[in-house]
Amino acid sequence: MPLGMLVDGKWTTEWTEQDNQGKFNRMPTQFRNWIKKDGSSAFTVEQNRYHLYVSLACPWAHRTLMMRNLKGLKDVISVSIVDPEMGENGWNFSEEPGCIPDIVNSCNYLRELYLKANPQYTGRVTVPVLWDKPNQHMINNESREIIRMLDVEFEAHSKSGLNLYPNELQEQIEQTIDAIYQPINNGVYRSGFAASQTAYEEAVTELFKHLDHWEQVLESQRYLCGNKLTEADVCLFTTLFRFDPVYHGHFKCNLRRIVDYPNLWNYVKDIYQTPGVKETCNLDHIKRHYYKSHTQINPTRVVPIGPIINFDEPHDREKFSQ
Ligand SMILES: N[C@@H](CCC(=O)N[C@@H](CS)C(=O)NCC(=O)O)C(=O)O
């Protein structure tokens, strides 16, 4: 794999995330600090103190940008958007359309930010990153935790007042996020990055078994945890939005498309058309990133022009009451 990572603060491309059976194993995320509204952490909730580094291509980063919009936190948390094409030097900042350079730390490459946080850092250099501007501190680089912080801890700053982690659904939300992570969110990567037939077939079979399950669930309710939009939907949406344009072809997740599942397809359109979501969706960045950056699975770097797909088409999900 030509992707790079940092080892003791030095950049290397000599590594792999596949085990000896060809299975893709994701490395754990390392920056796990919490911003707290109750003062129990050094990282307090403040307007304009934190900065979010994202890629519009990445489903994990997309979760955080989507949550920032859904909550109405654009004036509270600033953003940088990396260039969609990730080469041997990892993510970089540019002035390409849809990108926002690093106005906070003036980095050219995202790895410079990780080295600012820890000059001896060993690990992958990933988006999203939540950064403490005055203290030059990397707060957190795990999307599931970042969305929880934006949702719960920044509640008082939220312009929309939307709560995607309501008390009565918290247990179900956690269980659902857990349930979709390995087979679906990570499942598309386990399929696409599998380096053996067995590892690939195992991952794809499990992936579609779980998509079939959620198709059933969405027959009788609007969202994953009932008739309220929650964090679990944010987590699933960013994977499903990329599914037909990228995972179906590039990652060989091709037993079915999302448009072949009536409920999942309407569900994706419903969430896409929720105020604030559409602006976070950039198919150009998404397609260019995957097809041009993973040269081990697409050596020609040619980006397909299809599929023709319209996320603005009407959906039927309003039939469920709130
Ligand atoms: N566990 C992380 C995963 C983030 C992640 O894997 N991001 C990818 C982009 S989709 C990345 O930055 N990859 C760069 C690399 O691995 O070098 C999260 O959910 O936040």
UniProtKB/TrEMBL annotation:
<feature type="active site" description="Nucleophile">
    <location>
        <position position="58"/>
    </location>
</feature>
<dbReference type="GO" id="GO:0005737">
    <property type="term" value="C:cytoplasm"/>
</dbReference>
<dbReference type="InterPro" id="IPR016639">
    <property type="entry name" value="GST_Omega/GSH"/>
</dbReference>
<dbReference type="InterPro" id="IPR036249">
    <property type="entry name" value="Thioredoxin-like_sf"/>
</dbReference>
<feature type="site" description="Lowers pKa of active site Cys">
    <location>
        <position position="290"/>
    </location>
</feature>
<dbReference type="GO" id="GO:0004364">
    <property type="term" value="F:glutathione transferase activity"/>
</dbReference>
<feature type="site" description="Lowers pKa of active site Cys">
    <location>
        <position position="247"/>
    </location>
</feature>
<dbReference type="InterPro" id="IPR036282">
    <property type="entry name" value="Glutathione-S-Trfase_C_sf"/>
</dbReference>
<feature type="domain" description="GST C-terminal">
    <location>
        <begin position="163"/>
        <end position="293"/>
    </location>
</feature>
<dbReference type="Pfam" id="PF13410">
    <property type="entry name" value="GST_C_2"/>
</dbReference>
<protein>
    <submittedName>
        <fullName>Glutathione S-transferase, C-terminal domain protein</fullName>
    </submittedName>
</protein>
<feature type="active site" description="Proton donor/acceptor">
    <location>
        <position position="189"/>
    </location>
</feature>
<feature type="binding site">
    <location>
        <begin position="124"/>
        <end position="127"/>
    </location>
    <ligand>
        <name>glutathione</name>
    </ligand>
</feature>
<dbReference type="Pfam" id="PF13409">
    <property type="entry name" value="GST_N_2"/>
</dbReference>
<feature type="binding site">
    <location>
        <begin position="142"/>
        <end position="143"/>
    </location>
    <ligand>
        <name>glutathione</name>
    </ligand>
</feature>
<dbReference type="InterPro" id="IPR047047">
    <property type="entry name" value="GST_Omega-like_C"/>
</dbReference>
<feature type="binding site">
    <location>
        <position position="91"/>
    </location>
    <ligand>
        <name>glutathione</name>
    </ligand>
</feature>
<dbReference type="InterPro" id="IPR010987">
    <property type="entry name" value="Glutathione-S-Trfase_C-like"/>
</dbReference>
<dbReference type="InterPro" id="IPR004045">
    <property type="entry name" value="Glutathione_S-Trfase_N"/>
</dbReference>
<dbReference type="InterPro" id="IPR040079">
    <property type="entry name" value="Glutathione_S-Trfase"/>
</dbReference>
<keyword id="KW-0808">Transferase</keyword>
